[in-house]
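Is this the right way to post structure tokens for a design question? Let me know if I should format differently. Anyway, here goes:
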């Protein structure tokens, strides 16, 4: 069967209900390319991404993902940062179908040992298997905010995205099929699950009388002839592209002539069927559209005030659109986005009860808790906004010479350089401190070694779990000899 439509039908595609002007539709061709067109069918580009794989295509608002033999590929929705080896089930395997949400990409792999479903974070990282292994007839996968779904000949299985393999339901929906038909492509929105009824393989090359069915997500009776006249090639080795947005359902018509194929579109109620919405295309085996069925035109599926077609996290609220690593995926749904810097600890003030003193006879403990004032030496006082750990570096002023932007130890080579004060750490005190006022008694002697007479300073730095270190604060003092 060769698909030939008059040009008037192709032109009529532009007159159907228009999605947001900058929305896009993507398809994957058997010739290893990914095409793109405006969601109104205009400005088609059959070579949007070259080397774009073999079967399966998905997008999540920021990235495209596709199957490329034994690899999962990835690129931005703008066609940049193409990575043909983003993830792999291993060899010998083929990626047959792909789905994606804001957090993960999912793919169905066909290997010599059978078929399996995997997921991998959209930003990269370790992948993991999902649920029980489907049969060799498994053909398509789809994802919504709660479940991952897959087709398996006459059944649709599902597993909770946050669940364990034990929670998988491989017989969630059973479809009574016409002769020589099997389920293949699958798509889902907030009310329905849609599926293609492809041929099982006899006679070879036949695509006649295939259709698109749907069923309600609450377990209603499947409607097998929801859209008729579609053309899907036989067998689960030839995945069928199927996708939905807020107002329409899209599918990839597959022709025996390969280059004489098309993208079809219809209203979500099954009306206004246009088998040549985008024509011609080369044997599409994957399909993805922006919008994902999140609501009316200009949808905002996550309710964050940013329309889905411009939201860098269309499924997760991200109102400020923060994207620290600038990869097109917002912080709220990017597992590898640089974390926000923690708030700093804040030292409200520091003081020194005795700016000139003689070292006491006893040593100050290096570690401990803040304590009350002692009679000899001095007492450092400081106030913290939050409880934490205070480090107090005791430093002595020594002569130095300026070189290379630093105050360095004097040497013969540096004798003509400008003089400077070099602060040398003598010891460090560490105290667990409470929020509010704290005091640290300091004798000027640690481990029986007293500070030498001269100018000194104490450098205070506070830290705590969940906070970045505070800015340092300094108090100066002088050590003098006992009279």
């Amino acid at each position: 069967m060769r698909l030939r439509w008059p040009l008037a039908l192709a032109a009529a595609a532009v007159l159907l209900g228009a999605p947001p002007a900058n929305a896009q539709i993507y398809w994957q061709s058997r010739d290893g390319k990914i095409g793109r067109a405006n969601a109104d069918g205009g400005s088609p580009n059959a070579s949007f991404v070259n080397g774009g794989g073999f079967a399966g295509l998905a997008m999540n608002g920021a990235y495209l993902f596709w199957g490329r033999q034994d690899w999962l590929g990835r690129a931005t929705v703008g066609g940049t940062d193409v990575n043909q080896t983003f993830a792999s089930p291993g060899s010998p395997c083929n990626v047959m179908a792909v789905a994606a949400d804001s957090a993960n990409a999912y793919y169905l792999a066909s290997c010599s040992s059978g078929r399996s479903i995997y997921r991998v974070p959209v930003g990269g990282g370790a992948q993991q298997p999902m649920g029980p292994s489907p049969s060799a007839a498994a053909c398509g996968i789809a994802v919504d905010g709660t479940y991952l779904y897959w087709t398996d000949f006459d059944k649709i299985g599902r597993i909770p995205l946050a669940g364990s393999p034990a929670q998988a339901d491989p017989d969630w929906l059973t479809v009574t099929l016409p002769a020589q038909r099997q389920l293949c492509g699958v798509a889902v929105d907030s009310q329905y699950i849609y599926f293609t009824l492809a041929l099982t393989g006899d006679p070879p090359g036949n695509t006649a009388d295939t259709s698109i069915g749907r069923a309600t997500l609450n377990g209603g009776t499947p409607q097998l002839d929801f859209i008729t006249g579609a053309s899907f090639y036989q067998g689960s080795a030839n995945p069928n592209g199927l996708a939905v947005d807020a107002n329409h359902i899209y599918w990839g018509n597959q022709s025996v002539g390969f280059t004489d194929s098309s993208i079809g579109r219809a209203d979500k109620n099954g009306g206004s069927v246009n088998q040549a919405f985008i024509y011609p295309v080369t044997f599409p085996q994957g399909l993805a559209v922006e919008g994902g069925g999140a609501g009316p035109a200009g949808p905002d599926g996550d309710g964050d005030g940013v329309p889905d077609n411009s939201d860098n996290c269309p499924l997760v609220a991200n109102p400020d659109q923060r994207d620290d690593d600038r990869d097109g995926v917002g912080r709220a749904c990017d597992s590898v986005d640089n974390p926000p810097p923690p708030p700093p600890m804040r030292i409200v003030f520091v003081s020194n009860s005795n700016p000139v003193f003689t070292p006491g006879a006893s040593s100050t403990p290096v570690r401990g808790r803040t304590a009350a004032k002692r009679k000899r030496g001095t007492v450092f006082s400081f106030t913290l906004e939050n409880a934490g750990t205070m480090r107090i570096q005791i430093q002595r002023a020594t002569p130095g010479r300026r070189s290379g932007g630093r105050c360095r130890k004097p040497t013969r080579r540096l004798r003509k350089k400008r003089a400077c004060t070099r602060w040398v750490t003598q010891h460090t005190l560490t105290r667990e401190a409470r929020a509010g006022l704290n005091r640290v008694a300091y004798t000027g002697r640690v481990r029986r070694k007293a500070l030498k007479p001269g100018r000194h300073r104490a450098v205070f730095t506070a830290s705590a779990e969940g906070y970045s270190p505070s800015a340092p604060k300094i108090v100066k003092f002088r050590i003098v000899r006992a009279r």
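Format looks fine. Someone answered above. Worth noting: Helices lie at 7-12. The radius of gyration is 34 Å.
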